[in-house]
Recover the amino acids of this structure.
């Protein structure tokens, strides 16, 4: 087949994260965002070096068991949830096959203990954070606020009935979109680098119900007066202040179930289409909120890392605690520690825990959280793991790794291996990166002992994986005893 050719067939399987595989005339074609068992009509969009990619033109028949009712009204357009039309049990089976297959590709089945996939305690309304984007659904259309349209870099779908967040998120989104649409405020256009509105960040504690809202805009105010803005900067700033205060007041009057702790305005002139903080102003309240996890309390700021599924994170961190095993009188390194959640979960039963994180704001939050939780055996260092490891005075007995999506920096891996700890726990949000790093860890003398997955992202392709690795000899010169189960 060649580019532009159309075909029909059945999606045979889906590889992580969303690569549907269809065989046509003996040729393997990859179609993103498909579901196993669907019969589709598609078109070849790319062919290079013997590899073919395609896109669906028409869904001819749903997959066996695929839902026809009760699905999110935005499902067919929004790019957020690709598996929401599958019953949750089928989602779990699909994700488990993906993760287990990846692990088996580097560690043969039977050489380690696979402990299955643990479901999220709730599969709807589970997220404690959303980053919504401003834009339009069609070029020149009305202001939209929500998620990117599936397969599009530019079009935005207003997701006022999103199923994976609490209804408070939807109220805040709708009120914000309606307010700025009525004021005719332009959104930021990525190609032309003009406009004002960029993102709406909403965070809400699942346990506490505390809410933080942050409007992210550019600093461009030329749209207020049109041409000839030069010399009128003060008038523009005054108009912006009135605009933002009006938005703030519209949110304060909403009948939310949770408690609005802070309303913020963040300025971002970065060319990248990401939520970035150049400076933040508090319009109401405070710039943080609290969430509870495994009996501990965590102070969360707008841009600090915290697992987006609070109830699922409790399952995940309990597994980490079980896998790490006995920590009495031991020093634990928590590398890529974020706001120090794992470090503080382990701290009550360890001699000392040292966290390393590159985001200064997250490190500050981790330090404050350890004080709140009355933990005096935690220390948190700001900096790149690659560099900070050379400056650490403590020597670890155990290591927990929770790196970003791309995994561990290749130059950092040898340093981690040289610590020579008897036991490591690796937490991964991208199993393909984990598999790459497992190869290096195996070369460094580590063996995969146990593994399980945790579904922190129902309806989506996301999945967390936890693995336990050990060396044959631990730091005490005896065979490492592996303990800890994954029966949550």
């Amino acid at each position: 087949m060649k580019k532009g050719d159309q075909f029909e067939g059945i999606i045979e399987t889906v590889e992580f994260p969303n690569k549907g595989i269809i065989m046509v005339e003996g040729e393997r074609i990859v179609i993103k965002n498909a579901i196993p068992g669907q019969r589709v009509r598609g078109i070849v969009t790319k062919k290079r070096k013997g590899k073919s990619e395609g896109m669906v033109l028409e869904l001819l028949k749903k997959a066996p068991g695929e839902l026809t009712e009760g699905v999110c009204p935005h499902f067919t357009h929004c790019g957020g949830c690709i598996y929401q039309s599958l019953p949750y049990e089928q989602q779990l089976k699909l994700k488990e096959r993906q993760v287990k297959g990846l692990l088996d590709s580097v560690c043969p089945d039977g050489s380690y203990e696979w402990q299955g996939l643990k479901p999220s305690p709730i599969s709807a309304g589970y997220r404690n954070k959303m980053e919504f984007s401003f834009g339009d659904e069609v070029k020149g259309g009305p202001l939209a606020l929500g998620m990117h349209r599936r397969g599009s870099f530019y079009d935005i779908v207003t997701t006022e009935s999103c199923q994976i967040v609490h209804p408070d998120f939807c109220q805040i989104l709708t009120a914000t979109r309606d307010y700025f649409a009525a004021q005719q405020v332009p959104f930021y256009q990525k190609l032309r680098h003009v406009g004002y509105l960029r993102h709406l960040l909403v965070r809400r504690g699942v346990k506490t119900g505390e809410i933080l809202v942050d409007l992210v805009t550019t600093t461009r105010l030329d749209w207020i007066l049109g041409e000839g803005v030069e010399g009128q900067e003060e008038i523009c700033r005054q108009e912006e202040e009135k605009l933002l205060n009006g938005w703030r007041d519209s949110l304060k009057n909403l009948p939310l179930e949770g408690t609005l702790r802070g309303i913020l305005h963040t300025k971002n002139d970065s060319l990248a289409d990401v939520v970035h903080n150049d400076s933040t102003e508090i319009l109401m309240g405070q710039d943080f909120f609290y969430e509870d996890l495994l009996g501990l309390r965590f102070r969360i700021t707008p841009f600090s890392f915290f697992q987006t599924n609070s109830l699922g994170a409790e399952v995940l961190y309990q597994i980490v605690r079980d896998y790490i095993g006995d920590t009495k009188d031991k020093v634990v390194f928590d590398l890529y520690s974020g706001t120090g959640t794992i470090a503080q979960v382990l701290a009550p039963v360890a001699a000392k825990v040292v966290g390393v994180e590159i985001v200064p704001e997250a490190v500050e939050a981790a330090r404050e959280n350890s004080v709140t939780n009355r933990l005096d055996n935690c220390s948190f260092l700001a900096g790149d793991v690659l560099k900070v490891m050379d400056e650490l005075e403590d020597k670890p007995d155990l290591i927990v790794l929770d790196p970003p999506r791309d995994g561990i920096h290749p130059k950092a891996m040898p340093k981690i291996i040289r610590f020579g700890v008897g036991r490591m726990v690796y937490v991964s949000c991208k199993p393909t990166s984990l598999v790459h790093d497992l190869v290096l860890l195996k070369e460094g003398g580590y063996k995969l002992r146990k593994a399980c997955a945790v579904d922190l992202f129902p309806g989506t392709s996301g999945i967390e994986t936890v693995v336990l690795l050990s060396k044959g000899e631990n730091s005490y010169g005896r065979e490492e005893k592996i303990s800890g189960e994954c029966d949550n």
